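Discussion board: Methods & Data

I've been asked by a reviewer to show the raw model output for two of the constructs in my manuscript, not just the figures. I'm not sure how much to include, so I'm pasting the format here to get opinions. Each protein appears as its amino acid sequence followed by a line of discrete structure tokens. Is this the kind of thing reviewers expect to see in a supplement, or should I convert it first? Here is construct A:
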Amino acid sequence: MNELECIRAFVKVVEVGSFAEAARQTGTVKSVITKRVNQLEEHLELQLLQRSTRRLTITDGGADFYERCVHVLSELDQAKAAVSSVEWGLTGTFRVSCISSVTSAFLAEDLCEFQLEHPDLRVELQQHDRFCDPVQEGFDVCLQPSREAGGILEKVDILPLQRLLVATPDYVKAHGEPTTAEALKTHRIAHNNHVQPNCAVDFISDSDIRSVTMDPHILTNTIWLLRAAVMSHQYVAIMPVFFIEKELASGQLIPLSPNLRARTTQFSAFYRRSSFVSMKVRIFVNFLRRKYGEHPPWELRILQQFPELERVMGSGMRK
């Protein structure tokens, strides 16, 4: 019996909720994972998991043992990373999940740059236009618009994603420009339910924040459809500046009423909560935060070209 392998198998089964998924994520077969957990229970003389044909339940003793194992494994992985790196060089596989719009706009280049800085590191990227759980799906870190972290997930904000309510000049000419949240409800709306699943949008005034529930004509979790809808001259939408910088700069899209300021969304890193966060995750998150900070380059370029947008894209949106 390899006690460490058995412990890792048990921890993975608890995190993903099944023997089959644990096997898939670790690149083994289900029978091996099952055997390792069984051996661990026999060794400890303690039932860690209750199995049935429909569900898997952790016992009280198993829950206590799991928490201690996570702590021990974190310390062990941290120690291994420290002694195997040279001048903080990174090794092994680094699995990242990110939403497609950010990948196409800047993260693809960032990952290439990061890998070149750490040539012994193998970088693997998967795109998901939905909330991705790094623990359940086997990623080191998931990069996505922010929501509250909970359970065993930790969240670190990377950069603010300023958003503007936009339409084409042809749309405004044909349908007018909404000046209030109530007036916006009479317009044809395309909405991203990945960022705001309940279709409620927070608009910021000088004194408060007002949540308005939209009734969209187009509902999607991909920003590509959102942009196509707006560019068809038939819809208005709230879109992040980084994704429509060229359209704003060329005048193909225009920001609508400054009275309708959409609240900023944070772009964040999610990873497993631990006393000792993986060195790969820590270095990568700091790499992105140093590179972009509070004022990403696309935001500065747009404000330089359109200083009148300062009111819409100003610090008040970060409340």
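Construct B, same format:
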Amino acid sequence: MTRTDKQQEIVEMFDHISSTYDRLNRILSFGVDRSWRRKGCLEAFKIFGKPCGTLLDVASGTGDLMLFWRKASCRLNLPIDRAICIDPSAKMLDIARKKVKDAEFLQHRATDIPLENAAADLISISYGIRNVIEIDRAIGEFYRLLRPGGVLLILEFMNHKKQTLSDRAVSLYLFKILPAIGRLFSRDRRAYAYLPASIERFLTAEELCEKLKKNGFEIAQVKDETFGVSTRFIARKPL
């Protein structure tokens, strides 16, 4: 199977689970994913430190993160002039359009976004970089799209190769309990078996930082949340 075929298979899987995606996120994370998103947007906006001309939320799914960007904007009194949700799944974007007001929507992959160079001040991708087959190409695209001084926020479930006791507990949940719950609520059994498998074969935090630096980014913050279940990366394009 080619990289293109693999990527299309992932997109079709997310199309298939779109109607249950939000509800399952809340159930499977016990609602704590909202805290991860809220903190991520606040921290990235604080590091950027000024009003945002254009914000791109890549792999935006049903639009959850964009809602938290709006809340961070209001809380810090730093307006967002233009907000764009970008996702390859048409059905995910259909849900996002109902949830997110005053935004634009583009159906495109993270590796090929049809905007001009230096188009954005802020770019985010939450729990989506793991689903991109060509990660280096996506990071390069983010760098191209950011203006000098612009900020990239990544939230992701990382591979922990050296496992602590808490890592083992998380692995037990991901590999045994989560797929069983997913099967109860989702029409697609593959999707919730895919999640732990995709984490297991993904990068470590150190490896993702190296890819960001290799593509020109400066690392501003790396922070584990909830015993390392989720990790926040904030990187800046140099001035």
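Answer (T.O., handling editor elsewhere):
This is acceptable in a supplement if you add a one-line summary per construct. For B, something like: DSSP finds eight helices and seven strands in the chain.
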